[in-house]
Amino acid sequence: MTDPRQPDLPFPPQEQRPPGDTGSMSPHPHDEMRDYVGSGLLEGKVALVTGGDSGIGRAVAIAFAKEGADVAIAYLNEHDDAHHTARLIEKAGRRYLLLPGDLAQEAHCADIVARTVQELGGLDILVNNIATQNPNTDLATLNTQQWLTTFAVNVHSFFWTTRAALPHLGRGSAIINTASVNGLRGNKTLVDYSATKGAVIAFTYALAQQLVERGIRVNAVAPGPVWTPLIPATMDEEKAARFGDHTMFGRPAQPDEIAPSYVFFAAERLSSYYTGEVLGPTGQVLPG
Predict the structure, then answer these.
(1) Distance separating alpha carbons of residues 127 and 92, to the nearest angstrom
(2) Tens-digit pLDDT profile for residues 88-138
(3) Are 14 and 228 in contact (CB under 8 A)?
C-alpha cells in the first residue's frame, strides 16, 4: 500500500461547498484499496453501503467487491465520485448499483433497499455510513434546523434503512454502523454531530441484542479523523490544513486504513462471535 503518512501536515489550504468531492482535495485521499487483495470472504454476497461514493464508503465498497460481493452505493448527489467508485467495483469483477437521493427522507431509505434486492438479487450486508456535520462553537447559535438535519441524516437514515433491510437479512447477515470517536468522547465544536454518533453507538448495542437470535450481527466502527471530502467541505482552511495533527500518528487516517475494519465485521468467517462491538481506529488512546 502506498505510504499513507505522506504528504505530511499541514495540507494545502482548501475549502469546498458541501457535500464535497474527492477530485478537488489536495492531497487526494487513499481510498481505492489499490493494493488490497481479497480472499473470497464475501463471495456471492450483496452489500448496500450508504455514503459509498467517496471516503470511507468508497474504500469499503471496493474492499467488499474485491472480497467477492456485489455492491449498491447510496449517495446524495456526488455523481462523479459515485461513478468513479462504480468503475472500480466493476474492475474488481463485481456488479454495482448507484442509488442517488436524499437519505434524510424515509421513503428514499426504503426505496434503496427495495432496489438493491430487486436489481442485485438480495441483501446480506448493510453498511450505514452516510453522515453530515457542521461545526458550531456556541450552542446558543446552533439552530433547530441544523440539529434536525444532522439527526435526520446521521441517525434517522440508519433507522429507516435498517428497518427496511431487516425482512431481507438472514442468518449470517451483518449490519455495520459508522460511529465516530466523537460519539465516544464528544467534541465541543460538533455538539449535534457528537450526539448523533453517540446515538449510533447505543443503537448498535441495542439492535445487536434484539437480532442475535436471528443470527444477524450488528457492530459499529468508530473512526478518529479520516481524510475524506467531508473535511474540506465542513471545516475552514486552517482546520483542514492541520486536520488529525492531534493523533498519536500526527496525521489523519486514510479511508484505505479504515475499510478493513468493515471487512472484518462483514465476514462471518472472521467475526462470527462479534456482535454489539464498537471497533475504534481512532489513532488515540481513549479512557474506558
Answers:
(1) 19
(2) 999 999 999 999 999 999 999 999 999 999 999 999 999 999 999 999 999
(3) no
In the block, which residue shows the cell 467488499?
64
Burial 206-222 (b: 16+ CB within 10 A, else e): ebbeebeeeebbbbbbb
The answer to whether 57 and 51 are in contact (CB under 8 A) is: yes
The pLDDT value given to residue 64 = 98
pTM above 0.85, yes or no: yes
Closest residue by Cα to residue 13 from 250, 170, 261, 242: 242
- Model pLDDT for residues 212-267, shown as the tens digit of each residue: 999 999 999 999 999 998 899 888 888 888 998 999 999 999 999 999 999 999 99
Respond yes or no: is residue 193 known to be catalytic.
yes
The model's pLDDT over 168-218, given as tens digits with 9 standing for 90+, comes to: 999 999 999 999 999 999 999 999 999 999 999 999 999 999 999 999 999
Q: Which of 75, 96, 193, 262 is catalytic?
A: 193
Buried b (16+ CB within 10 A) or exposed e, 20-40: bbbeebeeebbbbbeebebee
Please report the sign of the dihedral spanned by the C-alpha atoms of residue 267, residue 269, residue 271, residue 275.
Answer: positive
Beta strands in 62-152 (DSSP E): 70-75, 96-100, 125-128
User: How many CB atoms within 10 Å of residue 79?
Assistant: 13
The whole-angstrom separation of Cα 272 and Cα 47 is 17
Q: Which residues of 47-65 are buried (b: 16+ CB within 10 A; e: fewer)?
A: bbbbbbbbbbbbbbbbbbb
Tell me the DSSP string of 229-248. Answer: THHHHHS-HHHHHTTTTTST
C-alpha cell at 171: 442468518
For the four alpha carbons of 67, 98, 197 and 12, in that order, the dihedral sign comes to positive
